[in-house]
Amino acid sequence: MSKVTALRRREEHKYGGSPEGIKHHYDIGNEFWRLMLGPSYTYSAALFANPNDDLETAQLRKINWHLNSAKVQDAASVLEVGCGWGTILTRLNRLPNVRRAVGLTLSQAQADYLNGLGLDKVEVRVENWASYEPQEKFDSIISIGAFEHFAKPDETQAEKMLVYRDFFERCHRWLSPRGRLSLQTIAFGNMKRHEANEFMITEIYPESDLPYLADVVNAVDGLFEVVAVRNDRFDYARSYDEWLKNLRSRRAEAVSLAGEEQVQRFERFYKLGSVGFRMGKINLLRFCLRPITNDWRATGEPVKTDGSMSLA
């Protein structure tokens, strides 16, 4: 991809994420999503620790994992790339040490919802990370469930890698030397890209393509040290199962909100996704990343990523 092509695509707001693709999947009614996701209003894999965990407990553990991974306990400013309906931003707004939090989304419905919450330390922007230019550095960056939307199916592998590298170069520039980046993404596992289910890539996630683990590792090379990485694919399977259970328990209400066709689409989506994660066709990767810097004081401190610290 030439620089001219990249700039043209960025101007069209296609580079690094498609508003049309996001709107297709996410802007189908906030109440419909809340019905499926439950009280946490969190649309990404939870982090289960034992068979008796309920969804809300596991979602809280996942949130804590990312807050710990990004060292939010030491942060005055935090950026969230792909902020969803603001579960993490709401937590950040309550933390006394955090003075500023910025959330990026391509969903106007999510932004409208967040702007109605009255979060005084939070700025929500309907903006692509590829066009965002912060005025100050951040101490923490968190991105959960956005990375898988950055590349497009029609791009070559080289073009995909340019997008991934651009994202990490920006995060490196935006972070303070002692900052941390916490990243969560779905990724291809033992399945080849051409084996992906047509329903998933056209009906559920149009204009999106998954990375492989090697893509992320290669894209951060020389920019970030991988402090921790874990594959929690069974957690995503279980999250899909829980969302399907929520949907079916209030199916009539869901149909009244979004229509029978949409409900059937999500029932099929959650069943296929659960099977795919259990078979290892797709993985759920969580990364704790430390920026590579010449400041030796920023490189040797341990980072706690077990999700046990409560930052409520």
List the helices and strands and how they pair.
Blueprint: H1 3-11, H2 19-26, H3 30-37, H4 55-69, E1 77-81, H5 87-94, E2 100-105, H6 108-115, E3 122-126, E4 138-144, H7 157-174, E5 175-188, H8 198-204, H9 213-220, E6 224-231, H10 233-249, H11 251-258, H12 260-278, E7 282-291
Parallel strand pairs: 1-2, 1-4, 2-3, 4-5
Antiparallel strand pairs: 5-7, 6-7
Output the keywords.
single chain; 312 residues; alpha/beta; Rossmann fold; 7-stranded mixed β-sheet; 18% strand; globular; disordered C terminus
Explain what the structure shows:
With 312 residues, this protein is α/β, with parallel strands linked by helices. It has a single domain, classed as Rossmann fold, CATH 3.40.50.150. It has 12 helices and 7 strands. A 7-stranded mixed beta sheet has the order 3-2-1-4-5-7-6, with helices on both faces. Strand 1, helix 5 (87-94) and strand 2 (100-105) form a beta-alpha-beta unit. Helix 11 (251-258) crosses helix 12. The radius of gyration is 18 Å and the shape is globular.
Largest sheet: 7 strands, mixed
Mean pLDDT: 88
Structural class: alpha/beta
In what range is the share of β-strand residues? 15-25%
The overall number of domains is: 1
Count the strands? 7
Give the full name of the CATH homologous superfamily: Vaccinia Virus protein VP39
Helix residue percentage? 40-55%
First CA to last CA: what distance? 44 Å
CATH topology: Rossmann fold
| CATH architecture identity | 3-Layer(aba) Sandwich
The CATH class turns out to be Alpha Beta
The coarse silhouette is globular
Strand order of the largest sheet: 3-2-1-4-5-7-6
Q: Please trace the helix and strand order, writing H or E for each element.
A: HHHHEHEHEEHEHHEHHHE
Rg, Cα atoms, Å: 18 Å
